[in-house]
Write a structure and sequence with these properties.
Blueprint: H1 7-23, E1 27-28, E2 34-35, E3 40-42, H2 46-56, E4 60-62, H3 65-70, E5 76-79, H4 83-95, E6 99-102, H5 110-123, E7 127-129, H6 137-148, E8 154-162, H7 188-203, E9 207-215, E10 220-222, E11 228-230, E12 236-243, E13 248-254, E14 265-271, E15 274-278, E16 283-287, E17 311-312, H8 322-336, H9 344-363, E18 367-368
Parallel strand pairs: 3-4, 5-6, 6-7, 8-13
Antiparallel strand pairs: 1-2, 8-14, 9-12, 9-18, 10-11, 12-13, 14-15, 15-16, 16-17
Length: 379
């Protein structure tokens, strides 16, 4: 596990996924067996690795990636490093014959991401990319509604994602400073459109075109050492997507907004028969039979409680941590070849969409999204 000393790597991948899987006795396999992952923490800072390993009872850690890749006992390479370091290490792992699983974006360019996917396919290793939002309770409830035909014909999706990331002078920033430096792989487009690609593709329909406008609303921030720096990467993206089935989706992504909604991610899905509001955990619906009749009249106080007319989707099943759920799927895929569609080719699609969105911003026009080859062997 390379790069898990960061917040996301520690909390979601190490503690709430791999260590949680170990605590439950491993992943169940067909025939009654169980797979128990044995992590080795890899990184550049030995002190941080030692502290993390000791805090969570992990026996193995190393600053020598080559030695870890050469050890036949280590069957899977996982990467949660910064984007600028990821592709180089993934290539080394694939060439060493390891199955690979990684965070996104997979690489800094679509060409590089696609080359990695082809290399993994040609070398015969199994590969996957984290696509956690598909496994969130709110999104899974929404997908169940879509699959049941609840909405009739869906025609629009409107999404808001983001929160206010402090500049670092008055209060410490919640995100690392490299996120705001283009030269270090920062920028919200490549970060978030990698999410929106798989979320749209697998929940509503394949993306056909994209139009995007970006901004750097906060041009100056302070780094981890308290030193000011100029922001060279965009911190906000206003993107519109046309899907193959005619649905229009508009998603705002920003690290500069103050939240006035139930969750940090919220989607409104509108159809001919019903609408829904979905977040990370909750999903609420309003059917056409229960829709109040709104009338525009600014001369009197609004007589309708619009919030009160939405009904929560019931908790008919329990949902595990989204990262852990996908980790279990990938471990079974790596061990026994169970189908796993969230592969490096899927990851390359996210990078492709990010590149096209940035080109759309530069050129001020819609961009077509060409199809990307897939790997039928994994699906």
């Amino acid at each position: 596990m390379n790069g898990v000393t960061g917040r996301m790597g520690t909390n979601q991948h190490l503690v709430r996924s791999i260590l949680a899987i170990r605590e439950q006795g491993g992943v169940a396999l067909p025939g009654g067996g169980r797979l128990l992952p044995d992590p080795i923490l890899v990184g550049r800072n030995e002190a941080k690795l030692r502290e993390l390993a000791e805090a969570h009872g992990v026996e193995r850690y190393s600053t020598d990636l080559d030695r870890c890749l050469a050890d036949p006992a280590n069957a899977i390479y996982f990467d949660a490093q910064t984007t600028s370091r990821r592709a180089f290490s993934l290539r080394r792992a694939i060439e060493a014959g390891k199955h690979v699983y990684c965070e996104k974006p997979v690489a800094e360019s679509f060409a590089e991401a696609l080359a990695l996917a082809k290399l993994a396919r040609d070398r015969g290793v199994r590969h996957g990319v984290v696509q956690d939002k598909l496994f969130l309770p709110g999104i899974r409830k929404l997908k169940n509604l879509i699959d049941s035909g609840y909405f009739g014909r869906i025609f629009s999706v409107r999404g808001e994602f983001g929160y206010y990331v402090f500049e670092g002078d008055l209060q410490p920033a919640q995100r690392p400073s490299w996120n705001y430096r283009k030269e270090d792989g920062g920028g919200i487009v490549m970060d978030m459109l990698s999410h929106w690609r798989y979320l749209l593709d697998h929940t509503f329909g394949p993306v056909r075109r994209v139009s995007c406008h970006c901004a750097t609303h906060i041009p100056r921030r302070w780094d981890e050492d308290g030193k000011p720096y100029d922001c060279t990467a965009e911190d906000t993206a206003y993107a519109t997507f046309e899907l193959e089935n005619g649905i229009l989706a508009h998603l705002n992504s920003s690290w500069c907004v103050r939240v006035y909604r139930d969750e940090l991610l919220q989607l409104q899905v509108d159809g001919t028969h019903a609408s829904a509001i979905a977040g990370l955990r909750e999903c609420r619906t309003q059917h056409r039979a229960n829709t109040p009749k709104a009338v525009w009249n600014p001369d009197i106080p609004n007589p309708i409680d619009f919030f009160g007319g939405w009904q929560p989707v019931p908790e008919n099943q329990s949902f595990d941590n989204a990262f852990k759920a996908q980790w279990e799927m990938f471990l079974r895929h790596a061990a026994i070849g169970e189908p796993f569609k969230h592969d490096l080719f899927e990851g390359a699609k996210g990078v492709q969409l990010g590149e096209l969105a940035l080109q759309s911003w530069r050129e001020g026009r819609w961009m077509d999204v060409p199809p990307v080859e897939t790997n039928p062997a994994q699906t």
